[in-house]
Amino acid sequence: MSQILTTLSPLERRRQRVGIGFITPTLLIIALILVYPVVQSFVMSFQQQGFAGDETTWVGTRHYDAMFASSRFWNALTVTVVFTLITIPVELAIGLGLAILMNESFRGKGFARLAVLFPWAFPTALNALMWRWMYNADYGIFNDVALKAGVIAEPVNWLGDATLAMMSMAVVSIWKTSSFMALIILAGLQAIPRDLFEAGRMDGMNRWQEFTQITLPLLRGSILVALVIRSMDALRTFELPFNLTDGGPVAATETLSLYAYKTIFEFVEFNSGAAIVVVQFAVIFALSLIYVFALRPKD
Amino acid sequence: MERRAGKGTYITVVISVVISFFPIVWLILTSLKNTAGIYSWPPQYWPDPFTLENYIYIFTETPELLRYVVNSFIVGVGCTALTLTAGGMAGYALARLRLRFSTGLMLMILSVSMFPPIALLPSLFQSFVNLGFLNSYLGLIVAHTGLFLPYAVFMLASYFATLPVEIEEAAQIDGMGFLQIFTSIVAPLSWPGFVATGLIIFIFSWNEFPLALVLMTQDAMRTAPVGISLYPGEFAFPWETISTATVIAIIPILVITAIFQKQILGGLTAGTGK
Amino acid sequence: MRFPKIAAAVSAALLSAFAPQYATAEDLILSIGPRGYGGVVPDAVASFQEANPDISVEWLKISDVPSESRKLYVTSFTAKAPTPDVMTVDVIWPGEFAKRGWIAPLSEHFEADELQNFNSALLEAATLGDEFYGVPLFVGGTLFFYRKDLLDKYDLPVPATWEDVIASAKVVLEGENDPDLVGFTSMWAKIEGLFMNWLSFVYGNGGTFFDENGDVAVNSPEAIHAMQTMVDILYEHKIANEGILNMRPDDARTLFQQGRAVFMMVQDFVHAPLSADDSPVDGKFDFRRIPTFAGHEDAPTTAMGGFLIAMNANSENKEAAVKLIKHLTSYDRQLWAATEASKSPGRVDVVSDEGMQKVPVLARFGEAFAKGVVRPSALTGNAYPKVSDVMQIEITNALHQRKTAEEAMNDAAEQINLILGK
Question: Which of B164, C41, C303, C381 has the fewest CB within 10 Å, making it most exposed?
Fold first, then answer.
């Protein structure tokens, strides 16, 4: 360590020292809460735990082999990826629109902003349960309203049909998370200096040009942040399918996290479960590699 | 000069508000109905009779709910404070202090957060038992902080990176130490970023369920979401009590969001001051 | 802006103010949910502490939803946590928990004749070899509910076989001509309850899960016919609609309570809300044991549920824990639970007590419970969760018509044999 420091200027040395000091608390906390369990999971995925006095043995890639051969795993992977691909673009678009909307000035702005931010503050589990009630094919209010409005002729089985269930779940996610995206983008929107818009208006730009030539480029950072955080979350979706459909019908909405949960807590197979989350981690990691290199601060 | 909002804007706003708000309105209405009204067919949209019996039931039969809400608040505030402090410093280090291996560190911080929290449970529980951290505010605060630090570091680092360097460089030339630059210049300038991140972290902590469930096993220490999960019976899901309990548990979040939305969204000069 | 400083100060304050708390070793921690047996606990604990002033009992409320409390148990037992000392376990857990060394054997603390007094089906579910690991606390089971008023309207007797059920439902549906009315509703989402329903159908047709040789018999002709009947109810006879495939027990209860179902097959817990004063079907419904198929009138069809009381294998207060278990399952406590809190007792000798006249419905439940079917949890041990999952998936495949009943049952048998290593 000191060898690195002596080749730098005093300012650089101070910078490095302060930097290390600044980052240490975070690293310590993360080491305890995240790194240790993650490493433990890695290790466990190559073992087989014994119960009631039996030994824990090393089994190499047995769990991985079994997992890659199981259709249930591939189904879970597909479900997770499809869900992410459906929801993220829509959430981003709506979030962007909401952010721009909330940035304007109009009467009742305060209340509107609160209302629009609100879906995301709702606890995911309760939210999913509430939507499940509203989606109920026999007595849910969605069917009731749609029937009365003449939009549909027969009650729709929102959560009972495989494709519909995925769509219904996506709707819940979009409803909830668009406001989250809006919140992040809004913070970035606030940082755009007003005079740029002034100048643009004086140059005779219309709203669309204003949007594409000023707003969007300057929002690039916020949009990427929102994208990264949200896609990492979408790939780990658990509470939503757990409470809305329990992975049904017939695993049509069983995400990787839900599959891992069942393996660990219902089948009590910690080692197979560890293998699943390791693979899930790999998928997310690959995605975030792309993001981080896109966002690296340009020196 | 602000452009006055047109009709199109107003219509979009109204639609957005309705869509955003209707489930919450539905929940509040449900809490004001009696049991027969909640399960009636055809569905009863407006409570008839309007009744506060669910609220009375909660306050008399299960007053511990309020204690759970307080616990959630303590954990939420503690977690937010710790996360913003540690995360802010780390974010600054990564964005401005040009640490060696900063890309690698960022990658590492982000990647460990990619594990689904539910998979961390058994391992984390064991660690906490060994460390004696079960059933302590500190324990859950640290656990939540660990969960959300990667987000905070990432968001704050990105926010810091967008601030103009000139001000900091000027301060450096003036001989200011980095810590001082951070606390008296950078942090105030990034106030909207801190508030947005803080609000997000607080809400994450408030709504977090799996860790709160296993790390707080004593009844007096439970958080609100865990407390609400005690209302359902083995088969029965009493919407009358659950909707009411949820409304009560959501009020602090509503209040905080209301206060801080002004901070984030109001003030055209906040944070920019150029 | 001294925000970071304030944050640091706040953190420090919290750090010092809220140090970790430990449970003291003299307490017994009893974990039971507040909605199920919760009504019984305060009184039971108070009477126990009166009789045993040197032992203190803390009631830890856990979720009554089995999958929620299971999260907790799997996490704490794996970490060998010593508390809770005494806990309720769902009837399908003892086999698994015992195999994993999580709960302690109790045989040494009970005399053989004492055990005669308890519900044999539940006790069986908690027995591995010659040891048993849980004492039945309270029982439940699935029942068949029907709309008395609608049957009377069309001069129909209460059906005793599935063939009659289907025929009667059709008559009522045709006569009422109400698009909101279904003939039959139940809990056919991919849940444990679906497996229970299937068992009722299969045993009601003379089938069993394991045959006399101990082989898997889920694809026996009787079982396949039963499975086919479930499919036909949906698609051939159309007395149930597809919404049933998403229903959990309370969803079905809601539909029946709204007056929109002629027949319903769910657990006994629905009786209370259905007979509440504000229930639209109060006074219009009744129940009986789940029907059998023609020719098997005596077959058991009540799928049993319920909870047992067990002891943590790592408890540090085993002696005191056993005393608590014995107290909770004593004659007096069980009678109290039945008469004051309407919990069907795990002890069968209580059922003939005079005091039970206060709760005649429980007596009728008891009759149905006497012809009970248990899920094969003890026989499959720690493989049970997987076995149940396989069954749920294949039954669902048949109900969604992705496989024929025969294919689904054959596939189920194959997978279960694999799991059990046969």
Answer: B164
Q: Tens of pLDDT along C6-60?
A: 555 455 444 433 444 444 445 899 999 998 898 999 999 999 999 999 999 999 9
- Full-model pTM: 0.88
Confidence class for position A114, pLDDT limits 50, 70, 90 = confident
Is the Cα dihedral C108, C113, C117, C121 positive or negative?
A: positive
Write out chain B residues lying below 8 Å of C1, CB-based.
183-184, 187-188, 191
Partner-chain contact C74 A268, CB within 8 Å: yes
Residue C284 has which token pair?
């219009």
Q: Which of residues 256-275 of C touch B (CB under 8 A)?
A: 257-260, 266-267, 269-270, 273
10 Å Cβ neighbour count for A178? Answer: 28
Summarize pLDDT for C268-317 with one digit per residue, the tens.
Answer: 999 999 999 889 999 999 999 999 999 999 999 999 999 999 999 999 99
Of B135, B188, B233, the CB nearest to C64: B233
Question: Which residue matches tokens 């070899």?
Answer: C129
Of C3, C18, C34, which has the smallest distance from its Cβ to B194's Cβ? C3
The candidate with the shortest Cα–Cα distance to A239, out of A75, A80, A83, A124, is A124
Amino acid at C249: P
DSSP summary character for residue C101: T
Which of A123, A83, A64, A32 shows the shortest CA–CA distance to A256? A83
Nearest CA in chain C to B131: C20
To the nearest whole angstrom, how far is the Cα of C294 from the nearest Cα of chain B? 31
C contact set with A (CB within 8 A): 67, 70-71, 74, 78, 96, 99-101, 182, 189-191, 241-243, 245-246, 251, 254-255, 258, 260, 382, 385-386, 389, 393, 396-397, 400, 402
Q: What is the pLDDT of residue A175?
A: 93
Strand A57-58 versus strand C27-32 pairing type? unpaired
How far apart CA C209 and CA C204 sit, in angstroms, is 12
**Strand bridging mode C86-90 / C302-311:** antiparallel
Please name which of A66, A77, A72, A45 lies closest in space to residue A256, comparing C-alpha atoms. A77
Kindly provide the ipTM of the predicted complex, given to two decimals: 0.85
Decide if B242 touches A, using CB distance below 8 A.
Answer: yes
Burial of C17 (0-12, 13-18, 19+ CB in 10 A): exposed
